[in-house]
Every structure is written in structure tokens, then in C-alpha cells.
Amino acid sequence: MSYARYGQKAKQSCFMTAEWDLKEHYRILYYNMLTACKLNSYLANIDRQAEEMFSRLVNTCRHFHYSYFAKML
H or E element: which one contains 71? Predict the structure, then answer.
């Protein structure tokens, strides 16, 4: 599975998990945000943060991978 494809799955999972977590554990906050039309922007912000974290992770893995194999040459 490619990084891009894995990233899409991780992104969807993070978005769904954040919404479920709010709904299950912070029910009043969830409904207040939903009725104030702030839920989507909150979840979009979490989505953006997850994308940035995943991008940093991929870059770190890529750097490690290249430096590891460069030492072998």
C-alpha cells in the first residue's frame, strides 16, 4: 500500500474517530458545536492537523530510509 493511499485511510479514520469521540465522550460539546455550526470547522481543523502530522511522519521515515541505505552503499 502506498503512502498516499495509506494517508487517505488514516485521514478518514482520524476524521471519523474525532467525531465519534466527541459524540461519545463530550456529547454536550458535540451538540453545542453542531447547533452553532462550528462542528465542521472544528473537524476540518483536526483533519488539517492530522495531515500535517502524517506528512511529517512520512518525511521522517523517508529521511531515515534514504540515510540508512546510503550508509550501506
Answer: helix 39-72
Task: Sort residue 14 into left (φ over 0), alpha (ψ -120 to 50) or beta.
Answer: alpha
Residue 25 lies in domain = 3-72
For 1-11, what is the mean pLDDT? 53
Half-sphere exposure of 51 (CA within 13 A, CB side): 10
Write down the pTM of the prediction: 0.60
Distance of CA 69 to the CA centre of its chain: 29
28 burial class (0-12, 13-18, 19+ CB within 10 angstroms)? exposed
Domain count, the chain: 1
CA pair distance 14, 8, nearest whole angstrom: 10
